């Protein structure tokens, strides 16, 4: 699908994306590149990075792939430095690296829980921490233009409670909290905007194939009236909005891009039944207001 944004909205910007070699992260890399940014993608697998970088370059996008694990502070520091060394600056950090698997809480070991928090939550903070000195551009009052942008990829799992996702729900709740705290502190001190995106189920991603194999998707359709799948493009468009000047007054929020799915509940009564019932109930309550003794009527 064609982007509704002008192709130069990120012209001259440099973006670093963790988990940028595949899935949603890769689509954000593509769209950032198509809108003028140079992109550095960070990931653990060299082969994934290599094929992502060649795909990006074949689209005319300036791209490099940097191997690293967000759980290791030395990797985070090295990748940030290498990005700045290669492209001369860093304007946008996208924290997309995440870990997940379906598991019931009683079968999850503390180390399994910790592993996902280490990747999603601590990894996000570590990357932000290492990138700060390049994102802050001197801060307000130092004669520089606005600071950089941070985008944290989150989820909606923790808005309620999600089956077999205690680890990811806890991790993403922490990510949202990090988003708000950094937006407050770094927004005030350095004019850095920090926002998040909470995707719904997105076709053709690791999240979907791991968490919602075919049978589960079909069941969900029956159980959730608003259930529909999103595309990676939908998330990338939200990222463009937040990373560009279109979002210049947006700070500390997590944009939900899920077609309304998280609001979705089973319909208990058909619409026609509600119409009929509602009139009857109104009439009844006018005739006998609640709390009034029937002898007074
Ligand atoms: C139970 C599991 C498990 C499983 C791993 N563990 N898989 N426990 N069920 N299916 C436990 C292990 O037993 C171990 O605990 C601990 O977790 C660490 O596992 P390792 O395999 O040693 O970890 P590692 O090799 O570092 O791999 C990390 C990983 C892996 C998260 C487990 O899946 C990974 O690398 N994932 C990255 C890619 C990914 O998941 N992408 C999907 C993102 S989707 P013990 O106690 O045995 O030592 C996404 C969507 C979120 O993020 C939002 C959804 C709506």
Please give a structural write-up:
The protein is of the alpha/beta class and 297 residues long. The chain has 2 domains: 14-266, NAD(P)-binding Rossmann-like Domain (Rossmann fold); 268-297. Helix content is 46%, strand content 12%. The protein has 9 helices and 7 strands; from the N terminus they run βαβαβαβαβαβαααβα. Strands 3-2-1-4-5-6-7 form a 7-stranded parallel beta sheet, sandwiched between helices. α1 links the parallel β1 (14-18) and β2 (38-43). α3 (73-87) runs parallel beside α4 and α4 (110-135) runs parallel beside α5. It starts with 13 loop residues before the first strand and ends in a 10-residue tail after the last helix. The chain binds hexanoyl-coenzyme A. Hexanoyl-coenzyme A is lined by residues 98-101, 103, 108-109, 111-112, 115-116, 155, 157, 168, 206-207, 210-211.
Widest sheet: strand order?
3-2-1-4-5-6-7
Secondary-structure element string: EHEHEHEHEHEHHHEH
Largest sheet: 7 strands, parallel
Ligands bound to this protein structure: hexanoyl-coenzyme A
The shape is elongated
Radius of gyration: 23 Å
Q: What are the segments in which pLDDT stays under 50 over at least 5 consecutive residues?
A: 138-144
Instruction: Please tell me the total number of domains.
Output: 2
Query: Count of DSSP helices?
Result: 9
> Mean pLDDT, as a whole number?
92
Cα distance, first to last residue?
Answer: 65 Å
Q: Structural class of the helices, strands and pairings?
A: alpha/beta
| CATH fold title of the largest domain | Rossmann fold
Strand content: 5-15%
- Output the CATH class name of the largest domain: Alpha Beta
Q: What's the CATH architecture name of the largest domain?
A: 3-Layer(aba) Sandwich
The beta-strand count equals 7
Proportion of residues in helical segments:
40-55%
Looking at CATH, the homologous superfamily of the largest domain is NAD(P)-binding Rossmann-like Domain
């Amino acid at each position: 699908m064609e982007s509704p944004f002008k192709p130069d909205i990120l012209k001259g910007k440099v973006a670093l994306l963790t988990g940028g070699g595949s899935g949603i992260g890769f689509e954000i890399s593509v769209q950032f590149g198509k809108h003028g940014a140079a992109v550095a993608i960070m990931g653990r697998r060299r082969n994934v990075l290599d094929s992502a970088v060649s795909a990006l370059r074949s689209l005319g996008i300036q791209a490099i792939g940097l191997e690293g694990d967000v759980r290791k502070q030395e990797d985070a520091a090295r990748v940030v430095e290498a990005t700045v060394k290669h492209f001369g600056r860093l304007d946008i950090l996208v924290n997309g690296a995440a870990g997940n698997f379906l598991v019931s809480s009683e079968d999850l070991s503390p180390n399994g829980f910790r592993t996902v928090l280490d990747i999603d939550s601590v990894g996000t903070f570590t990357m932000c921490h290492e990138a700060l000195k390049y994102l802050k551009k001197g801060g307000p009052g130092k004669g520089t233009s606005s600071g950089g942008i941070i985008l944290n990829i989150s989820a909606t799992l923790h808005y309620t409670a999600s089956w077999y996702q205690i680890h990811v729900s806890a991790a993403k709740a922490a990510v949202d909290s990090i988003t708000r705290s950094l937006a407050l502190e770094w927004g005030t001190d350095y004019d850095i905007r920090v926002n998040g995106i909470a995707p719904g189920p997105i076709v053709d991603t690791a999240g979907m194939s791991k968490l919602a194999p075919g049978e589960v998707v079909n069941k969900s359709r029956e159980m959730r009236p608003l259930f529909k799948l999103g595309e990676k493009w939908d998330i990338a468009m939200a990222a463009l909005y937040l990373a560009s000047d279109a979002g210049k007054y947006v700070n500390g929020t997590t944009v939900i891009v899920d077609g309304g799915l998280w609001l979705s509940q089973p319909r208990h009564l058909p619409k026609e039944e509600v119409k009929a019932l509602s009139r009857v109930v109104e009439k009844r309550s006018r005739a006998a207001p609640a709390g009034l003794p029937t002898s007074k009527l």
